[in-house]
Amino acid sequence: MKAGDIVRWTPRRLTAAWFKTTLCLLVEYKKWEKMGTILVDGELIRVRGEDLEKAGKKDLTRHG
């Protein structure tokens, strides 16, 4: 993953049934920290790398 990629963010710690995967913009990712900075609803949030996954073509057509 690199800056500018569209990623899926699914917080593993939030297990509520109403919470779903969100598409976000990856601003920064540091491999050695395994932390990423994403842009969600106008806010910059630092999240764990295991909660991020690069979005593919199906995600973009489904949410686009």
Give an account of the 3D structure.
There is one protein chain. The chain is mainly beta and 64 residues long. It has one domain. Helices cover 11% and strands 44% of the residues. It has 1 helix and 5 strands. It has one helix at 57-63; strands at 6-9, 22-30, 35-40, 43-48, 52-54. It has a 5-stranded antiparallel beta sheet, with no helix packed on it. The radius of gyration is 11 Å and the shape is globular. The chain starts with 5 loop residues before the first strand and ends with a helix. The model has no long low-confidence stretch (mean pLDDT 85).
Question: What is the secondary structure topology, with strand pairs?
Answer:
Layout lengths: L5 E4 L12 E9 L4 E6 L2 E6 L3 E3 L2 H7 L1
Antiparallel strand pairs: 1-2, 1-5, 2-3, 3-4
Offer a concise description of the structure.
It contains one helix and five strands.
Cross-sheet strand order for the largest sheet: 4-3-2-1-5
**Radius of gyration computed on alpha carbons:** 11 Å
Question: How many strand units?
Answer: 5
Q: What is the domain tally?
A: 1
Strand content: 35-45%
Which spans have pLDDT < 50 for at least 5 consecutive residues?
A: none
* Number of alpha- plus pi-helical segments: 1
The quaternary state of the protein chains shown equals single chain
SSE pattern, N- to C-terminal: EEEEEH
DSSP helix fraction: 10-25%
User: Average pLDDT across residues?
Assistant: 85
User: How far apart are the termini?
Assistant: 21 Å
Secondary-structure content class: mainly beta
